[in-house]
């Protein structure tokens, strides 16, 4: 059976994570995705190479694609660039504003060649505003959007970013999602369109607890801002700022229901949201929470004191048994819980194996590879990994021949360093 997007052609003019991941996701839906790189290869190829021009990160973000290496700035690149744009149903870029224009792959240039093209663009901070032109990566978007400071854990007194590049990952999924909607719109109307996403907006989106601001939030928000400005004005460090902000929400000092615990031999996490799960948790480990008692006086001081005492009690209780003993006990009590693992432990995990979450495929240079399956499964239009990430310029000749360029012209373009 064919994938849902079989026959759709995607020109992937992106690099690093967000854009390449979007194109890889589309390939798993059946698209023919062509990765366009400069002659030296995109930067992600050159990040911690494990073979020349090959990195683990590049393999991860670019599987399922064919690849072509071309200098789009070369004066002789015009005919190839226009042929590629005419070939494509979808064009994806993720450069900062101004760079697509320099490469002649911006929406105006692309739609002039193919008026019905779906042009999908991702930037760091959006296309407008005083910071639109800035270079940005996931770590910068996390810092500028509040994601870094939403993590209360510091390292050497510094606010640390989330390690797995959440802004990039969410943006990649969002871009692929938007392309499928644009293809549906095009099917109904015949119209292409421009799609815009940014790391900054994705970073705001993923902060579920802080996204929506109501009228009730205006005064507390203003108070927090005034405290923050005052703290910065007197040179307070991040630990002091965090302490001031935590003092405004004393209930955070007593989180025993949604957190990790150290056991006798390892670590586990529990997740109990809502009165019912929390009551089952208290019964399972044999504690009472005074904050739920009707006579409890809910002052900030008493809430904090009770919470801190409860945390110490629960941490001591969990250290009394092994991980296996606690997991068996908690699961029997219908508590959401699980062991803390490292990713290497998943490669032979029975649950992963049972669901075919890891699949094998072949790479031109590395041979057999094993990696995560497509993130969704579909019964009538199955997803699949079409191929591994391309070696640099692996399909240049194949693609140009497909576009109608004769062998002698392909040889000439390579001789003058237009293509690799």
Can you lay out the helices and strands and say which pair or pack?
Blueprint: E1 9-13, H1 18-28, E2 32-37, E3 49-51, E4 54-55, H2 56-61, E5 65-69, H3 78-87, E6 90-93, H4 99-103, H5 107-113, E7 118-123, H6 138-145, H7 147-150, E8 154-155, E9 158-159, H8 166-189, E10 193-198, H9 199-205, H10 218-233, H11 238-247, E11 258-262, E12 267-271, H12 275-285, H13 300-318, H14 323-332, E13 336-339, H15 350-354, E14 358-363, E15 367-372, H16 396-402, H17 407-415
Parallel strand pairs: 1-2, 1-6, 2-5, 6-7, 7-10
Antiparallel strand pairs: 3-4, 8-9, 11-12, 12-13, 14-15
In angstroms, what separates the terminal alpha carbons?
Answer: 35 Å
CATH topology of the domain at 9-205 and 390-415: Rossmann fold
Helix content: 40-55%
CATH class of the domain at 9-205 and 390-415: Alpha Beta
Summarize the structure.
By secondary structure, this protein is α/β, with parallel strands linked by helices. Among the domains are: 9-205 and 390-415, Rossmann fold (3-Layer(aba) Sandwich); 213-254. 40% of the residues lie in helices and 16% in strands.
Key structural traits:
15 strands, 17 helices, single chain, globular, 6-stranded parallel beta sheet, 420 residues, Rossmann fold, 16% strand, 3-stranded antiparallel beta sheet, alpha/beta
Would you mind describing this structure in some detail?
Among the domains are: about 10-205 and about 390-415, Crotonobetainyl-coa:carnitine coa-transferase, domain 1 (Rossmann fold), CATH 3.40.50; about 215-255. The chain contains 17 helices and 15 strands. It has helices spanning about 20-30, 55-60, 80-85, 100-105, 105-115, 140-145, 145-150, 165-190, 200-205, 220-235, 240-245, 275-285, 300-320, 325-330, 350-355, 395-400, 405-415; strands spanning about 10-15, 30-35, 50, 55, 65-70, 90-95, 120-125, 155, 160, 195-200, 260, 265-270, 335-340, 360-365, 365-370. The strands form five sheets. It has a six-stranded parallel sheet, sandwiched between helices. Strands 11-12-13 form a three-stranded antiparallel sheet, with helices on one face. Helix 6 packs across helix 9 (about 200-205) and helix 8 crosses helix 9. The chain starts with 8 loop residues before the first strand and ends in a 5-residue tail after the last helix. About 30% of the residues are buried. The mean pLDDT is about 95.
């Amino acid at each position: 059976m064919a994938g849902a997007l079989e026959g759709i052609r995607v020109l992937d003019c992106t690099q690093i994570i967000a854009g390449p991941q979007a194109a890889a996701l589309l390939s798993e839906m059946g698209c023919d995705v062509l990765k366009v790189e400069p002659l030296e290869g995109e930067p992600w190829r050159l990040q911690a190479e494990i073979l020349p021009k090959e990195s683990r990160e590049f393999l991860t973000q670019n599987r399922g694609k064919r690849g072509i290496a071309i200098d789009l700035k070369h004066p002789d690149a015009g005919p190839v660039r226009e042929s590629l744009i005419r070939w494509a149903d979808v064009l994806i870029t993720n450069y900062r504003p101004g760079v697509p224009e320099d490469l002649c792959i911006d929406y105006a240039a692309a739609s002039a060649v193919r008026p019905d093209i779906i042009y999908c663009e991702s930037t760091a901070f959006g296309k407008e505003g005083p910071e639109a032109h800035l270079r940005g990566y996931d770590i910068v978007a996390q810092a500028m959007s509040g994601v870094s400071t939403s993590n209360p854990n510091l390292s050497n007194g510094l606010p640390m970013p989330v390690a797995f590049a959440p802004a990039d990952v969410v943006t990649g999924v969002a871009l692929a999602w938007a392309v499928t909607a644009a293809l549906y719109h095009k099917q109904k109307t015949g119209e292409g369109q421009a799609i815009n996403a940014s790391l900054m907006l994705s970073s705001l989106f993923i902060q579920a607890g802080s996204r929506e601001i109501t009228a009730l939030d205006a005064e507390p928000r203003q108070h927090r801002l005034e405290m923050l400005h005052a703290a910065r004005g007197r040179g307070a460090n991040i630990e002091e700022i965090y302490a001031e902000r935590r003092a405004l929400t004393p209930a955070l000092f007593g989180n025993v229901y949604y957190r990790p615990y150290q056991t006798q031999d390892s670590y586990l996490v529990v997740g109990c949201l809502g009165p019912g799960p929390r009551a089952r948790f208290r019964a399972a480990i044999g504690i009472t929470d005074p904050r739920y008692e009707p006579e409890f006086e809910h002052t900030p001081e008493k809430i904090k004191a009770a919470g801190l005492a409860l945390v110490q009690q629960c941490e001591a209780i969990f250290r009394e048994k092994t991980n296996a003993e606690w997991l068996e006990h908690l699961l029997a009590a219908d508590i959401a819980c699980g062991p803390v693992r490292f990713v290497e432990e998943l490669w032979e995990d029975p649950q992963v194996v049972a669901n075919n979450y890891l699949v094998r495929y072949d790479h031109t240079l590395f041979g057999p590879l094993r990696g995560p399956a497509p993130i969704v499964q579909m019964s009538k239009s199955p997803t699949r990994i079409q191929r591994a990430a391309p070696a640099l310029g692996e399909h240049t000749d194949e693609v140009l021949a497909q576009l109608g360029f004769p062998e002698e012209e392909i040889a000439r373009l390579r001789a003058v360093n237009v293509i690799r």
